[in-house]
Amino acid sequence: MKKKDYAFEAKRFIKAVGGKSNIESYLHCVTRLRLNLIDKTKVNEAEIKASPLTKGINYSQNQLQIILGSGVVEAVYEEVQKEMEVSNLSLDEKLSNDKLEDFKLQAKANKEALRNKSGFFGQIQKGMRVLGDIFVPIIPAIVAAGLAMGVAALLKRILNPSGAELNSLLWIIVDIITKTAFDSLAVLVCWSTVKRFGGNPVLGIIIGLMLVSPLLPNKGSIAAYNAQLDFFNDQSSKGLNINQIYDYWNNAGLKWMGTAPIIDDESKEILVNATMGAPITAIKFWIIPITGYQGSVLPALIIGIVVAYLEKWIKSWMPKSVNMIFTPFLTISFALLIALFFFGPILLMVEQGILIATKAILGIKYGFGTAIIAGLLQGIVITGCHQVLQGLEMQLVIDGSLPGANGADPAGSIFNAIWTASIISQGGAAMAIAIKAKDKSDKELGFSAALSTFFGITEPAIFGTNLPKVKPFIYASIGAFFGGLFAGALNVTCPGMGVTVVPGLLLYTGDWVKLLGIIGVNIIAFSSAFLLTFFLFKEGVEAKKTKLGLKFDELKAKVKFDKIKFRKNKAE
């Protein structure tokens, strides 16, 4: 089909949904054109379905989704964008612009009233829909990086079981392919958030790049450094000298943490870490700690919203003659300061609270401690605060790698099993959604998201399928709880970290009992989440005719009355 046909169909869609004035915002995902409408009663579904490009339509509250297919949707979106940016109002329409604005405001007020009447769960659904709008465009990059990361981790465990550092050009290229998307996740999230809330997406990219700047300390590196420091301090407090501690490091299976750091024998402080260079700590501005946001989601999302609204506010009073210069400058400057000096310290306090709570919960006996952590873990992942748990996991692996009392064999760490249960359960829920879905694109997204969890990556499953639908994410968390309970009850431990689910099985190959245990964790977590989602999740259930339903009908009638009144006034 020629490009001019795409332009024609784009105009058809805009006209069929009530014109430009009825479109609040618009975006697209892999296969669908998504139009957020002011009044969805104005939609002419027959006209949309008459297009040769339309493969189906779907509603999510006031968002109309026109299913076009991969490749086609990008071309149509481009034409819709051009059409929305060009003002082609007739003279009569321009004269009636004030009345049109009044109608839009009234319709929008009615829409908000409908949303407010939908209850607490309706508000959650609204928030989840916004999250879906933000994360759907970036899911392909996350899926690709996740699969590449899983394959790379599996190859490294097979080809390099000792965990020694790999410096060959091949592995450097592999690391670039696998780590870039996740290390730069804040950039993707900030860009998509700013775009979703009507700001300049380029400003979102710039702010995102600033949040992951190499000039800021990496939070993951800080956690690793603190774990190493704790290890040396703990061993030193037992009366061991530096040489003895180095022997433990080299002989207790800790080489996966990198080369042992250089320690000052008197101060017992790390002078130089051969793996990471100089000691990694947060930058202190007075009492305010400042770090980077590598791998974080929530801070980038919040800052993205700040950027969008800050830009609009500055534009509202900035003289047009200097708007192009000073609006981006002030937006970027203020947003970055807010991120580093306000949200950053708050996030660090939240992380410390999560760390303290996790340590306390893990102490609960009979497997309930590991079950609770497994059930909550992916909720923590959403915030990006899970990085602080890497330090805790590292410490548990270190402690579990050393001989126990009276020379007992090393106990290993149970945190890998907790991670595995929390990850594979999200895959179970995504798989159930894929099987139940009637739309081909939903099936493809669900299956690819579930597949990525087998390699230890949950972001596609969380943000692409489970979290926007709310209940599947809850069911997956329940499945993780059962998997964590099994792991805790049987003490399913291993001597390492860093890889989970299928690649993670290699960590358990030294003990067939533990290997069977982790296989059981995978099966229980996956199947529990799958069954709960498959039998309990129902999408698009019609509301019952309660008082709320009657109120809903009244408000819809009011919207229709306002529309008729507007047309009558225009004719007069």
Shape: globular
Please give the number of β-strands: 8
Strand order of the largest sheet: 1-2-4-3
Query: How much helix, percentage-wise, in residues?
Result: 55-70%
Mean pLDDT: 76
Evaluate the radius of gyration. Answer: 27 Å
> Unreliable stretches, pLDDT < 50, 5 or more residues?
87-100, 272-277, 404-408, 540-553
Task: Kindly name the structural category.
Answer: mainly alpha
In what range is the share of β-strand residues?
Answer: 5-15%
* Oligomer class: single chain
How many DSSP helices?
Answer: 23
Measured between the Cα atoms of the first and last residue, the distance is: 43 Å
The biggest sheet amounts to: 4 strands, antiparallel
Helix-strand blueprint:
Layout: H1 3-16, E1 23-28, E2 32-37, H2 45-49, E3 56-60, E4 63-67, H3 72-85, H4 91-95, H5 97-116, H6 119-135, H7 139-159, H8 169-183, H9 185-196, H10 201-211, H11 219-237, H12 242-251, E5 262-263, E6 270-272, E7 283-285, E8 288-290, H13 298-317, H14 323-362, H15 368-383, H16 387-401, H17 415-436, H18 440-453, H19 459-469, H20 471-490, H21 501-504, H22 512-536, H23 547-571
Antiparallel strand pairs: 1-2, 2-4, 3-4, 5-6, 7-8
Helix pairs in contact: 1-3, 5-23, 6-9, 6-19, 7-8, 7-18, 7-19, 9-10, 9-13, 10-13, 10-14, 11-16, 13-14, 14-15, 14-16, 15-17, 15-20, 17-18, 17-19, 17-20, 17-22, 18-19, 19-20, 20-22
